[in-house]
From TrEMBL, chain A:
CDD domains: FDH_like_1 (cd08283). InterPro entries: ADH-like_C, ADH-like_N, ADH_Zn_CS, GroES-like_sf, NAD(P)-bd_dom_sf. Signal peptide: none annotated. This is Glutathione-dependent formaldehyde dehydrogenase. Residues 188-267 form the Alcohol dehydrogenase-like C-terminal domain. Gene3D superfamilies: Medium-chain alcohol dehydrogenases, catalytic domain, NAD(P)-binding Rossmann-like Domain. The keyword Amino-acid biosynthesis does not apply.
Amino acid sequence: MLAMSFRGPQRVRVQQKPMPEIKHPEDAIVRVTRSCICGSDLHLYNGNVPDTRVGMTFGHEFIGEVVEIGSEVTKLKVGDMVIVPFNVACGRCHFCKQGMFGNCHEANPEATAVGGFFGYAHIGGGYDGGQAEYARVPYANVSPTVIPEGMDPDDAVLLTDVVPTGYQAAEMAGIQPGDTVVVFGAGPVGIMAARCAWLFGAGRVIVLDEYDYRLEFVKNYAKCEAYNFKKDMEDVAMFIKKQTDWMGADCCIDAVGAEAAGNAVQTITGRKLLLQGGSATAMHWAINSVKKGGIISVVGVYGPTDNLIPLGNFMNKGLTMRGNQTSVKRLLPRLIEHVQNGTLNPKGIITHRIPLEEAAEGYRLFSDKLDNIIKPVLIPPSAR
Amino acid sequence: MEPTINNSKPSRARTKTPPTDLPGWGIDADPKNDPTYPMKQRTDAEQTGYSWERPTLQQPDVEILKSLERPNLTAVFGTSTPPSGLSGMLRRHAYANYSENDNRHWFTLVLADKINVVECVLDDLASGHVPNIFKEKGYKASWQHDRKGLIVSLGTTLAITAGLAYLAWPKNKRGKKPKSRTVYPS
């Protein structure tokens, strides 16, 4: 089968690889019909995630058709079209039982801080991902969800990660009606977090980014305020304070993670020298921009090593920080409702549909923010 | 001159009116979603330890490395790209000797990643495949959408590489006259 293969930092090859096989009685094999490139994939692409092995196939946002099932799979049948949440989750461990499907304890032998994820290096459990024609899907009785009748596949593929992550970012921010919410990052997740903040009753939503085209997009898509931190202000925390009657935002959402720009020290030590788990600029700004007693919600992905953040201010201001990998299965029923009744329009953020064979170009476009790209989707030959 | 101090209260309204043309405003508002409440459906089952009924265990058919912070392999696991070569030795060392809490675990893996890239280029060449770097880096997209940036980037890389190559070249082969040596008669 055709599959994306990581060759090293900023090098991607699409090549023939062996077909995935059933390795466990609860496995399913899925013929991929849509697979996105995620902002989190860029951390892998840029070589910022330890134990990213050459030859691995990325892709944790995919949907497709079930073509084979293991002997213990009862909830899916061959021919089902399924949304495959990016979490690999057993449904039985203490964490799954508590709805923390992103923290499954039976899906990742290589790291205990996170559960299992498709196509996310070996700290995600070593599963090949869905930027391929076929993918192995473990625990097929648990997370994979049959795509509802009539749902657009472009909407469905965004329910694997982007929409739930944006929604959980807003949920973790503990937004109360009338709150001012600041979202750092106008990538797909930041855009969705801004959109979902309104669902929780935000009174004001402000998004910061460095790319004007993204700010224009989020302003129109999420009906929020959008500012360029490189052009519209000299100091982010000062700007937010001025915007909020000198109090600070009620909630700040870090939707950036390791790739953040805006601070030379963070960039050099975090992104270039890998002495930190990425550049923690957005986190730094969030701590200093939120009000005393405020809440910081973190969905931006960082590496496992240390990061430079102003912990003294975090303590002195009495802040609360919440973060997690999104529990997609927990949120799917509600989000499917939102899509079906027109409250959310996920496919509205897709700007590029790229043949799987051109994955390298897709990564380059997305990584370098070319051609006004917001969200790229890879389409395998069999789905075209 | 006395400095003037502005003690007036800022007049900017803190909250603006939410957009009215957006469906769903406030429909998921939850006053109980206060961060002092955990995000999970609390069961406190962790207090019974590692006690759940485990799924059927996947049988490893390739080498799987395991974190020191777990007692066993998980019931399922990925089998992509098992460790091999020098990078594999380093990965085994990282997993076998350092917990996730120890930065040596991560920095050893980062080093292994770098070595792995070189190994794979050598593997490609050994099998007669010359990597198409232009294609793998997706430069076709850069050429289409950011030609100037691509030229600057490649030019800079080329200039630095040429400079380093020049510096690495033995001085007596750079077209300079080699220093004459005194020859003593025997």
